[in-house]
Design brief:
Layout (H helix, E strand, L loop, with lengths): L14 H22 L6 H4 E2 L2 E2 L1 H11 L11 H13 L3 H26 L2 H12 L2 H5 L7 H16 L6 H17 L7 H9 L6 H28 L12 H9 L13 H9 L7 H13 L4 H14 L1 H15 L13 H7 L37 H10 L8 H17 L3 H19 L9 H7 L1 H10 L12
Antiparallel strand pairs: 1-2
C-alpha cells in the first residue's frame, strides 16, 4: 500500500510569504497614517536643557560632523535622523518616511522570527497584531527615539533567533546590534546580557567552546560602542552618557519619597525651604520639576543628592516597594491616577498628532531659543484631522479611561511564554522574552513611570504568541528547528 502523498502546499504557508503578507498589510495601514497625521516635535527633539535637541544635533552631524551633543544623551537617534536628512532632505517628511519604513521593517522582522518559531498561520496572526499596535504606529509621528529603539531591539532578537546555526558572524551581529540599542538609549544596557546569553545558549555549552562565541559578541559590542566611549572619555564624560542627578534622587522626588528628616547637613536652607513648599507638600510632576530645577540652580552636590535619596529610601523601605508597584502599574498602562501623581503620557501622545499645525513643509529654524511645552513645533506641520481614519483609530487610545494599549495582556503572555520556554529548556527564547520583562522591571525598580519606555518590550512580547503556539501546535518534524 502506497503512502498518501501530502497535498499541495499553500503559497502563504512559506515563511517569506507570511512576511510579505504582513508587510503589505502594514504598508497599507502606514500609508494612511503618513497621509493624514503630521510629525510632532516635542522639546526633546528641538531643545534640551542648555544644549541641542535631537533634530538640531542631527543637522549639526550632517553639516559639520559635530558629535558633541548633550552629555546626557547618546548619538544613535541623531545619527538616524542625519541619515534620513542626507537621503530625503531636511524636512518633516524625511523623518516620517524614515520612521514608517523602519516600523515596517521592524514588523517584518518580528514576523520572520515568529515564522521561525511556529506554524505559518500563527506567525501571520503574530505579525498582523504587531502591525496594528497603536503605540508603535503612533511613535512614527514623533521626533523621538522610540521608533529606532524598537527596531534595534527587535533586530537584535532576530539576529539571535533567526539563524539556523550559530556562527561567529552571528555573534558579531548580535554584539553590533545590542551596542546600537545602547547608543539609541542607555537603558538598552539592561538587554545586552540577555541577548548575549541567548546567543551563547544556542550552541554547545561546554566552557572551552564558548570562548570564541563570547569574543565574537564582545567584538561586536566594542565596534559599536567603542568610538562613542572614547569620544565621551575625551570630553570628560564617563560611560555612554552623563546623568543629571543620581537616578533615584530624581525619581524619589517624583514619588514623594524624599524625607525631610533625612536631609544631609550640607543642604542649604534655600533648598530646604523649596523642598517644604513643593515635593514635601504635594509630590507631582510640576512640584518635582520645580524642586529639581532649584537643586540644579544651587549646584547641589551629587554626593548630597545621592545621600539624601539613599537615606530616605532606607528609612522607608515599604514606601519604596509601593513606589515600585505603582511604577510597574503605570508602565503597563494601568496606573492609578494618584499613585504616583505623574503626568499621564498616553492621552498626551495620542492626542497631539490630531492637533492642527501650520500647513507647510519648510526646513526647521533652530534659532528661536527654547520652545515651550506642551507642543514644540520646530517643523511646520500639515494639519491633522481628528475625523480622519487615522484620527478615529487613535481616538480610543487618547481617552485615559479606555486606555487601549495592550501592555497587560502582552506582559502576561510574555510571562507565560518565558515559563513555558524554561520548562521546555528552550533557553534562547526564554532569555529573549524574559529579557523584555526584565527591561520593564528595571524601569520599575528605579521608579521611572513613563509608559513609552515599555514599547521595545511590548513589541518583543508579541513573540509570546508564537512561543505558545509552537508549544501547543508544534511544527512538523521536517521543519522543526531547535531553540536550545
Amino acid at each position: 500500500m502506497h503512502e498518501r502523498s501530502p497535498g499541495p502546499r499553500r503559497p502563504w504557508s512559506h515563511p517569506l510569504a507570511v512576511v510579505a503578507l504582513v508587510t503589505l498589510a502594514g504598508a497599507a495601514l502606514r500609508l494612511v497614517f503618513f497621509a493624514e497625521l503630521p510629525l510632532v516635535v516635542t522639546p526633546d527633539g528641538s531643545w534640551a536643557p542648555e544644549e541641542k535637541g535631537y533634530i538640531p544635533w542631527a543637522v549639526a552631524l550632517l553639516e559639520h560632523g559635530d558629535f558633541a551633543g548633550p552629555a546626557v544623551r547618546t548619538p544613535g537617534y541623531p545619527l538616524f535622523l542625519a541619515a534620513a536628512f542626507a537621503v530625503l532632505g531636511t524636512s518633516a517628511t524625511a523623518v516620517l518616511v524614515a520612521q514608517h519604513v523602519l516600523g515596517l521593517v521592524t514588523v517584518a522582522l518580528l514576523t520572520l522570527v515568529a515564522a521561525r518559531l511556529a506554524r505559518p498561520w500563527v506567525a501571520l496572526v503574530t505579525g498582523l497584531l504587531a502591525a496594528l499596535d497603536p503605540w508603535h504606529l503612533l511613535f512614527a509621528h514623533y521626533a523621538l527615539s522610540e521608533c529606532l529603539m524598537v527596531f534595534t531591539v527587535v533586530a537584535t532578537a532576530a539576529a539571535v533567533l533567526v539563524p539556523r546555526r550559530r556562527s561567529l558572524a552571528q555573534g558579531c551581529a548580535v554584539g553590533l546590534l545590542a551596542g546600537a540599542t545602547c547608543l539609541v538609549r542607555p537603558t538598552g544596557q539592561v538587554l545586552v546580557p540577555f541577548f548575549a546569553l541567548a546567543y551563547l545558549c544556542g550552541g554547545p555549552r561546554r566552557l572551552r567552546e564558548l570562548a570564541a562565541p563570547a569574543c565574537a559578541v564582545a567584538a561586536g559590542l566594542a565596534a559599536s560602542l567603542g568610538p562613542w566611549l572614547v569620544f565621551n572619555l575625551a570630553r570628560g564624560v564617563p560611560g555612554l552618557a552623563a546623568a543629571e542627578d543620581p537616578l533615584l534622587f530624581k525619581t524619589a522626588a517624583y514619588h514623594g519619597l524624599l524625607a525631610a528628616d533625612e536631609i544631609p547637613a550640607g543642604v542649604g536652607p534655600g533648598i530646604r525651604q523649596v523642598f517644604d513648599e513643593t515635593v514635601a507638600h504635594d509630590a507631582n510632576e510640576d512640584t518635582a520639576r520645580a524642586f529639581l530645577d532649584t537643586c540644579h540652580a544651587a549646584n547641589l552636590a551629587w554626593e548630597l543628592r545621592a545621600e539624601w535619596s539613599r537615606r530616605s529610601l532606607a528609612a522607608n523601605p515599604g514606601g519604596y516597594l509601593r513606589g515600585v508597584w505603582y511604577t510597574l502599574r503605570w508602565l503597563l498602562n494601568v496606573g492609578l491616577a494618584e499613585h504616583p501623581a505623574i503626568f499621564d503620557e498616553l492621552p498626551y501622545f495620542a492626542q497631539r498628532p490630531t492637533v492642527a499645525g501650520h500647513a507647510s513643509d519648510r526646513p526647521p529654524n533652530f534659532q528661536g531659543g527654547r520652545l515651550e511645552p506642551p507642543l514644540a513645533a520646530a517643523f511646520a506641520m500639515q494639519p491633522g484631522r481628528p475625523e480622519s481614519l487615522a484620527g478615529r483609530f487613535l481616538a480610543p487610545f487618547a481617552e485615559s479611561a479606555g486606555r487601549g494599549i495592550p501592555q497587560v495582556p502582552l506582559a502576561l503572555l510574555g510571562c507565560a511564554a518565558t515559563v513555558v520556554a524554561c520548562v521546555r529548556r528552550h533557553w534562547t527564547i526564554a532569555l529573549v522574552v524574559g529579557g523584555a520583562l526584565a527591561f520593564v522591571l528595571a524601569h520599575a525598580l528605579i521608579l521611572y513611570p513613563w509608559q513609552r519606555y515599555t514599547l521595545p518590550s511590548e513589541m518583543l512580547w508579541y513573540l509570546a504568541l508564537s512561543v505558545l503556539g509552537a508549544t501547543f501546535l508544534p511544527l512538523p518534524k521536517d521543519t522543526c528547528q531547535s531553540q536550545e
